[in-house]
Specification:
heterodimer, A: 97 residues, Histone, subunit A, 3 helices, 33% helix, B: 475 residues, alpha/beta, Amidase signature (AS) enzymes, 11-stranded mixed beta sheet, 13% strand
């Protein structure tokens, strides 16, 4: 399963919202196949009776009160890194071509 | 010898009025300018740092207590948000991003009087083992400028060894503090997962990301860590601290039981000179009364494969926020929202970020999730269980930090898998969430070699105390 076609790479790029050049598609097809071949050594590992680990803190359901906390930031300061704004809102391009 | 005294001494002298914070910041900035050829630093924060220094000096004159790190300059890896400073994570997509708030770790250091003077280079988004993946430039090894300093916290490690500041902050997701510590001859401490808040630090792989110090001595690392550690309401994965980490207990080596990890020490990839140095360190520990036994964790050789599934999966998720809409680079030629996402990411991300996003997207995608991601998470459990078992038999584990000394700039850039293999002896610790430290064990042809020590989860104080003893014994 380690081989990746150009279509496979393009499908992943679409899922990840990445535009790739022709050269990148060729390169990634080869590199990803090599990396996946390496990680596929796990296929042979016996994990019967074991549960997956998603985190290691032992913490469960960390919650806090649903209250607004004022950290003293002005909205315009928090918006200062936004490429396009209008009326203190983030402005994006149109969604339908 | 370093121009910097132990951090606790510097702070005491500032508090006593014998040293001024301004002098210290000026000394730090002068060193950074003098050693600019090594390219350890992305940006200096001269004005902000000097203004803070003057405030601290004035507070001392007013008889106020300015804290345990009074006037001590430090350098933050450029994936830490420092209020009002540009924070890029060494990536083009974040170029020009000004931090609107500040990392909790930086806040805690500042509350004790420390002063951030500069931001250090890294592999972009901390993806790498050499700083060669920085979208800006490669940092050079202080011991040999034709070689890498290790990564991803390579700028931080080089900065400390070039005397630019008494300490620097790093992040360690798969070895990014310990590896550059090994390659530069500094001390690099990776704490138990969850002990230092990651609020305000650019996320890489959230289930293994930790923050820690790079210093010249274990004592300095312990003090900096002591200031940063503890729960934070802004990071729900932080855990309670149960111990003090500074000053360290003076624990004797006599009676301490170390496990010598055979999977690392007897691995084919381990350079024979590096191995000889680690064996030599082991002999010195034995002579000091420590007991050393061979231990085996048979699944350790699988850790890198597990890591290179889990890490890219989490990276692909964490990097989805860079979409050209809310902050960071936004491609001006896009006409629709979807094109704006795709083009901003295509032109803003470097090759390694794209590579990891692609791998992560693949292992999480429908039809492959169970075979890759879930399997990796389950093998992760197996590795954790083996650590737990072995820590029932020994107090600490020991081995090399890296299989080799610092490699030449350019040697691995065209072979991503070979570059990933640099982390082969550090990643298991991240998967298990346990603490580990790299301390200098000597040099091969003038290039430093790190000795790695590991302890069970939340045994950070014991590990640091032991590392200080080992540092004295092995040096």
């Amino acid at each position: 399963m380690a081989d990746l076609s150009r279509d496979d790479v393009l499908k992943l790029a679409r899922l990840a919202r990445l535009m790739l050049s022709d050269d990148e598609i060729t390169e990634f097809a080869a590199e990803l196949a090599e990396i996946l071949k390496y990680v596929e050594q796990l296929d042979a590992v016996d994990v019967s009776g074991l549960e997956p680990t998603s985190q290691v803190t032992g913490l469960t359901n960390v919650t806090r009160d649903d209250k607004v906390i004022d950290y003293g930031y002005a909205p315009q300061d928090l918006l200062s890194n936004v490429p396009h704004t209008q009326d203190n809102l983030i402005k994006v391009k149109r969604m339908i071509a | 010898m370093s121009v910097w005294q132990p951090i606790a001494d510097i702070a005491a002298k500032v508090q006593a009025g014998e040293l001024s914070a301004r002098q210290l910041v000026e000394q730090s900035l002068a060193k950074i300018a003098e050693q600019a050829d090594y390219q350890a630093i992305i940006v200096t924060l001269d004005e902000m740092a000097l203004a803070r220094a003057d405030k601290i000096d004035q507070a001392v004159k007013n008889g106020e207590n300015v804290g345990r790190l009074a006037g001590v300059p430090f350098i933050a890896k450029d994936n830490f948000l420092v209020f009002g400073a540009e924070t890029t994570a060494a990536s083009n997509i974040l170029k020009g991003f000004t931090a609107p708030y500040q990392a909790t770790a930086v806040n805690r250091l500042e509350m004790e009087g420390a002063i951030c003077v500069a931001k250090a280079n890294l592999d972009a988004f901390a993806h790498g083992s050499s700083t060669e993946n920085s979208d800006f430039f490669t940092t050079k090894n202080p011991h040999d400028p034709t070689r890498v300093p290790g990564g991803s916290s390579g700028g931080s490690a080089a900065a400390v060894m070039l005397d630019m500041a008494p300490f620097a902050l790093g992040t360690d997701t798969g070895g990014s503090i310990r590896l550059p510590a090994s390659f530069t001859g500094s001390v690099g401490f990776k704490p138990t997962y969850g002990l230092v808040s990651r609020s305000g630090v650019v996320a890489m792989a959230s289930s293994t990301d930790v923050i820690g110090p790079l210093t010249r001595t274990v004592d300095d690392a312990a003090l900096v860590f002591d200031v940063m550690a503890g729960r934070d309401e802004l990071d729900s994965t932080t855990i309670d601290r149960e111990e003090a980490y500074f000053p360290l207990n003076d624990t004797p080596l006599k009676g301490v039981k170390f496990g010598r990890i055979t999977e690392y020490m007897d691995s084919e990839g381990l350079d024979s000179d590096v191995k000889a140095l680690i064996e030599n360190a082991i002999e010195k520990l034995k002579a000091a009364g420590a007991e050393i036994v061979d231990v085996s964790l048979p699944s350790l050789p699988l850790a890198l494969a597990v890591y290179y599934i889990i890490c890219p999966a989490e990276v692909s998720s964490n990097l989805s926020r860079y979409d050209g809409q809310r902050y960071g680079y936004s491609d001006p030629s896009a006409t629709t929202l979807d094109d704006s996402y795709k083009m901003s990411r295509a032109h803003g991300f470097g090759k390694e970020a794209k590579r990891r996003i692609m791998i992560g997207t693949h292992v999480l995608s429908s039809g492959y999730y169970d075979a890759y991601y879930k399997k990796a998470q389950t093998v992760r459990t197996k590795i954790i269980n083996e650590f737990n078992d072995v820590f029932n038999k020994v107090d600490f584990l020991l081995g090399p930090t890296a299989p080799e000394v610092a490699f030449k700039i350019g040697a691995n850039v065209n072979d991503p898998l070979k570059m990933y293999l640099t982390d082969i002896m550090t990643v298991a610790v991240n998967l298990a969430g346990i603490p580990a430290i790299s301390i200098p064990a000597g040099s091969v042809d003038n290039l430093p070699v790190g000795l790695q020590l590991m302890a069970p989860q939340k045994h950070d104080a014991a590990l640091l105390a032991l590392a200080r003893k080992t540092e004295e014994t092995v040096a």
